[in-house]
Batch of 3 targets.
Target 1
Amino acid sequence: MELPKQYSDGLTLLELLIGLAIATILLTIAIPSFNDMLNRNHVASSVNGFISSLHFARSEAVSREMWVTLCPSRDGASCVPDYTSWNKGYIVFVNKDKDRDRDAGESILAVYQDVSDQVTVQTSSDHRNVITYRPSGRAWGYNTTVRFCLPESSSHNRTIIIATTGRLRLSDQMPGGKAITCE
């Protein structure tokens, strides 16, 4: 005699609890890694965007045979003399009078506003609150360090070091081997 087949229309409570326990364990392991990846990507995105702006400014200086300046800007039209304000936005402009400050007659080439809320962007000091390229492609002044910092995780902080030759170098530490910090 053959017994009738029984079909199950669902899961037992034990099967559901085991599945829920496995999902909880996997999420507990995955979420910190996911947050770490997001932090790394926030910094990488900010760094890559800034490098792109620096390459643009340098190529415009060479092609126009004029000084071209990047400076922090909150309104997209004028520079602010604050080396800690780069993540609020910055502008690239032709610096006809070579004073490293935008005047009314100087054309704006690019505007970058509200760059990142998560990443702090600062130049190396109050004396280097602008970055200027000469018609030769060389950077004005002396070497400049631009720092990109996350408030909650210093392991992902990066710097762009701009040599006077105009060459860019990316690093995970300050010149001299110190850890990257932002005030």
Note: The chain has one domain: 36-171.
Target 2
Amino acid sequence: MRAEWINPFIAATATTFEVLLECDVERGKPRLKSAVQPQFEISGLMSMQGEASGLVVVSLHRDVAVEATRFIVGHASGAIDADVVDVICEMTNMIAGGANNQLEQLSMQIGLPSVITGKNHVVNYPSGVATITIPCETKWGPFCVDASIKARPSRVLREPTASV
């Protein structure tokens, strides 16, 4: 996995928090992830295709998702409800859009983002490649960015065989 594939998502996530939510993000040290469950209760998923393919997941602690909703909508129930899912879906769209601007230069495109919720929800990370998690901290609590991206298998060009 190359940094140029992950960095656009990290930068777009920080920008989305800082511009949309007026909330600074402190990034922690990346590490390998072994679990198939995202760390927190609500996750925005972004798949990608092209020169590389994979999945990037922004997983947010419930408090972060609820406070983001309160900031944008003006109210929040304290639970992960339809308003919270809508806000996280919009944030995931913004992150995907910001990352896509940089990834197009690398012949890669991001698919339609989605959101999943629930304690211990499972994400089907691509097989055959490690998943890296980057922990982040905000004034509202933690979230993380998980990335599992692998290069597209190279195509082997064969020389045409001559018939005798």
Note: The domain at 3-150 is CATH 3.40.1550.10 (Chemotaxis protein chec).
Target 3
Amino acid sequence: MNQMKSLNYLFFLLSMLSFVACEEKMTEEEISNIGRQPCRKPAEFISQLGFDASRTAYSTEGTQYKGVLLLQAPATSADTAFKKYQHPTWSQHGYMASVTTDDFGNAYCFPIPVVNTMDNTLKTIHTVYKIDSKTGVMQAFTSLPDHRLFRRCCSFWYAGHLFRLSW
């Protein structure tokens, strides 16, 4: 029994040493760049528009603009104006909810009802749209299950948003 305790103790010590031995330390430069390095590649079309990709973001907030808007933050605190761009295809499918991007600069979004579903019918409300990183054109990427699979209601969940439409 005493030998078993010794083996367990030895195993525990070796396990702890393996964690310490594999510890990788960050350099001061790596630490100072946390949060400053872009985690994904920006879309190619952004620089072609004359926008600074390091100060741009997609926006779907507000009711002044339908769809997706590309905003560039001011370069200095003295400049308060945001530079705006909206490709014609970005407003064709009504209001959009959250935007996410992939490692290649493509952006993905989905429609969201604002006040009503006039811009997005029950046939199109389940569509995920893609903004191409090279051209900036938005088109249907994929669709989730058809609304006819549901009985007198249509529930859908995208990126943490749950909606339920009844008729």
Note: The chain has one domain: 44-166.
